[in-house]
Amino acid sequence: MSVEGQKRGDLPNVTAVGQATVVLKAPHNKLATFGMTKVEYYVVTDAIYQDANDDAAEAVIRKGFVSVAPPAVVTPGYMRRLEGFGEDALNYFTGLAQKYGSNSPGLLYRYSNDHVSTDIVEGKSFDVAKGLTERLESSSDQTAVIIGIDNLWDICLLQFVFEFTMASIENNIRELGRLRLIDPEPGLGVPRAAIKDIELLFVETSKGNIDPSVLKIELDRWQIFDRYQDRFLALFRNKS
After folding, report:
1. CB 46 within 8 A of CB 59
2. Is residue 24 within 8 Å of residue 147, measured between CB atoms?
3. Does the predicted TM-score (pTM) go above 0.85?
4. What is the Cα–Cα distance from 165 to 31, expressed in whole angstroms?
5. How far are the Cα atoms of 102, 131, 151, 184 from residue 190, in angstroms, in the given order?
6. Is 126 in the same domain as 220?
7. To the nearest 5 percent, what fractions of the chain are helix, strand and coil?
């Protein structure tokens, strides 16, 4: 079965989707290390409902935004305590912990997708995408124009996000390493970036901006609640 003929629910052929995904315009800047990154995207596809021999071609333009949070420094041990992973994923993280150590650092990227609009226009997908690229090239730095497959357009978007992330990892690691945020915190054994995030959570919790349970869950994920227990309980004493 060709990748164009796949149905929703079928397991996508990753190689085929990758080959069918063409990025005509990529964002000028890489993923930010210390701030949010927001990319406006246009995924252009040939309309799936039309016959390949039709003279009047139609393309579908899907517009939206992908937002990426700053990369979080994590460890295999931390990942095993995140919710939402199946048994295979947990076994994978266990294997990483056994191979590299439970506190070996890595980067976790969190994404959100806001699909704004869908438009149908005349023309082949390549011609439409090329015209979009020419129009946006001089006016928008953080924009991506992607040619994909109509019934798998969101998978094609994920393919772009994956490639964009891979192109940014080296720079993110270098900037985090320069500030020694990947190094383990003495006496705790967890990355300094995690301690920095926990300190921010304490500040926001004390201001009442977030629920204390968020801080408690994060401390438990790093298995360091006992080291912060007195300080955590003091948040409630200060309110009384």
Report:
1. yes
2. yes
3. no
4. 7
5. 10, 49, 43, 5
6. no
7. 45, 20, 35
Angstrom distance (rounded) from CA 21 to CA 42: 12
In the numeric block, the tokens 């003929």 are attached to 5
Same domain, 52 and 166: yes
User: What letters, b where the CB count within 10 A reaches 16 and e where it falls short, cover 135-148?
Assistant: ebeeeeeebbbbbb
Same structural domain, 151 and 54: yes
Q: Do 167 and 209 fall into the same domain?
A: no
Q: Which two tokens stand for residue 30?
A: 């890489």
| H-run or E-run covering 149 | none
59/131 same-domain check? yes
Count of the separate structural domains present in the chain: 2
Rounded Cα distance between 101 and 184, Å, is 12
Q: 3: how many CB neighbours lie within 10 A of its CB?
A: 21
Amino acid at position 132, single letter: L
- Regarding whether 214 and 165 lie in a shared domain, the answer is no
- Note the pLDDT tens digit of each residue in 63-117: 999 999 999 999 988 888 877 777 877 787 888 888 888 778 889 999 999 999 9
